[in-house]
Amino acid sequence: TAKVVVGATPGGLVSYVSDAYGGSTSDRQIVERSNLVALCDPGDSIMVYKGFNIQDLFTSKNVTVNIPTFFKNKNRLSGHTIMKDGKIASKRVHIERII
Question: Which UniProt keywords are given for this protein, alphabetically ordered (predicted)?
Fold first, then answer.
């Protein structure tokens, strides 16, 4: 199994592909070994799935790491949270199409 980190613009264009790593490499290790953090600008926003425990890697760059709430095992969501997650999910579909 090979693992890569894939990035895309909000419009669906592939903007980043990391080197490939073995299946036992954690998502965090792949991000740490890549130059993804250096490529981000202050104010950028990235979206990740549950399990990508990488928020701290981007803090110094003032990059927002978005994890949809519905991946966090929440039973009740507020209206604001549902709207926010819907916006995130509409972007996630681009990544799913790419992969």
Answer: Metal-binding
